[in-house]
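Homework help board

Subject: predicted structure for assignment chain

Our instructor gave us this sequence and asked us to write out the predicted structure in token form, then describe one feature. I got the tokens but I'm not sure how to describe them. Can anyone check?
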Amino acid sequence: MQPFELKKDIYWVGCVDYDHRDFHGYSRSPEGTTYNAYVIRDEKNVLMDTVSPGCAGTLLCRLGKIMEPEKIDYIVCNHLELDHAGSLAQIVERCKPEKIFCSTLGLKSLQGYFNTKDWPVVAVKSGDKLEIGKRSIIFQETRMLHWPDSMVSYIPEDKLLISNDAFGQNIASSWRYADEHDEGDLLRAIKEYFYNIILPYSPQVLATLPIVEKLDIDMIAPDHGLIHRGEKSVRFILDMYRKLAEQKPQQRAVIFYDTMWHSTEKMAYAACSGLEEAGVPARLMSVKNNHHSQIMTELADCGAVLAGSPTHNNTVLPLVAAQLTYMKGLRPKNRVGGAFGSFGWSGESAKYIHEQLESMGMEMPAAPVKCNWAPGHEALKACHDLGKAVGEALKRKCQEG
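My token output:
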């Protein structure tokens, strides 16, 4: 359990959880995740964030290689969600810090999760500066990235931004730096993290980026995943966040669907052929075989969303309903949509899906397509035409920017 020195007297003392699979209610690749915590050794020794429940021993072990835990003077809680603060009570009991710093809204989280009556808690706001010796820490609130209590901590003397949830990924690795990891896998993990957690707060991302870019930074250390070091890596993640937050339409489509007796599945393939004829590549994703987070991640590269389901009890199949609900909560913007579905008796599914996609603000260039029983040539051609109409609408949208 060795600490890792990022800069002189600044150490990573976090925990790598290789077996974690369900994170914030969504799954990821089987890499697990990382709970990053950091120690600054100075005239006042500072622990920046803690770790998830059950991981306190690992943090204390790494910390013990640097100093006795009781020598920690301050604890900074950039965000009080339990993957960062689940071990806080144990750490406070062991370290007995002089002060615990959190944002003004963090006070509510602290009181809600812990018995803080006897804790030496100090609330800070944007621009507040904490002198710790040779270094200082400047706090910047980043409300709704992704909780109201979130903030980041900037150490100007080391050009270091400790960014909490912003700029992170779910990657479990023995490497600490992003430039040591496979580039394609890193990019996928960034998109997955953004599109399943940060996406609803894209306006806040775009408002925060100019503030961050004014700072002199050569390292961004998030609380999950790998650390960005050097001008190239820092610029990469800032540019990536801007691109993801802007949600400019891209000429690619995703089709998600469920099927009972393969009729809706055949309709999905027909819609895909229409997209291809329009010059829009597409990916088909069965909701039975793809987790809702995987489908959501696909939207990072897709400007069009088509969805299909058989009618079941006068509505859609449960996994399609869940996917639509999950997607709606994440508030994707600037998309084109399409809906289709088969039915035996009542036929409400396609209309329901159309209305759900439309309620997300998607442009709906064609009426929903529904098919009674098994699709024949006419129904499949209608699905093909639906895909083509969506593809052509998307191409126009991309040209408009």
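Reply (TA_rk): Your tokens look well-formed. For the description, you could write something like this. The chain has twelve helices and 22 strands. That's the kind of observation they're looking for.
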